[in-house]
Amino acid sequence: YRVAAVQTPSSAELWNNVGMCFFEKRKMVAAIACLKRAVSLEPFQWKVHFNLGLLHLYTGQYASAFAFFSAALNLEPEPSLVYMYLGITLSRLDDYTNCRNAYARAIGTATPTEDDPTPTATTHLNCCITAFNHGDFGEAKKHFLIFDGLYRTIEEDNGGAEEHHPDLLPGFPDATEKRDIMGALLLGRENS
């Protein structure tokens, strides 16, 4: 990336990628600097705003995360993943009503693809956890049952037990653990 930064210092995509590399290494100050540079170079690129939202969500700066996720949605109103993270952010800001609306939009705008035939699985799990944390147990159970059905479909499509395919939900490495915990809390069951 150093060579590319010298050759094309005005590439927003480059600074976005470098920023996310720093984020992956948990070097937050460098990540923010790179992503802010990307925004200054290309202010209408929704993915940079989304990545800044992720970074601020991760660091607990929920108001800033909200601002960047909102900016991303103003630039590109369809990505369901942005709505899901907006829902998580609103939950952390104790705005449960709008949080539920964001999750509903995430579910409503998700489009199955060949790579991800069940794109709403992680949204339903996050919605379940959020509802549970806000004491809305009926809503939590509803979303858990939907998630559990999608999870079982993913498991079957991948040839069986999760032990053989530990990354059934890419980007959500502890989905199986969360599934077991929520299943026990909501349905009173031991390991599924």
Automatic annotation (TrEMBL):
Gene3D superfamilies: Tetratricopeptide repeat domain. One of its GO terms (cellular component) is ciliary basal body. GO terms for biological process: cilium assembly; protein localization to cilium. The keyword Cell membrane does not apply. TPR repeats lie at residues 12-45, 46-79. Keywords: Repeat, TPR repeat. The keyword Plastid does not apply. PANTHER family: BARDET-BIEDL SYNDROME 4 PROTEIN (PTHR44186:SF1), PTHR44186. Belongs to the BBS4 family. This is Bardet-Biedl syndrome 4 protein.
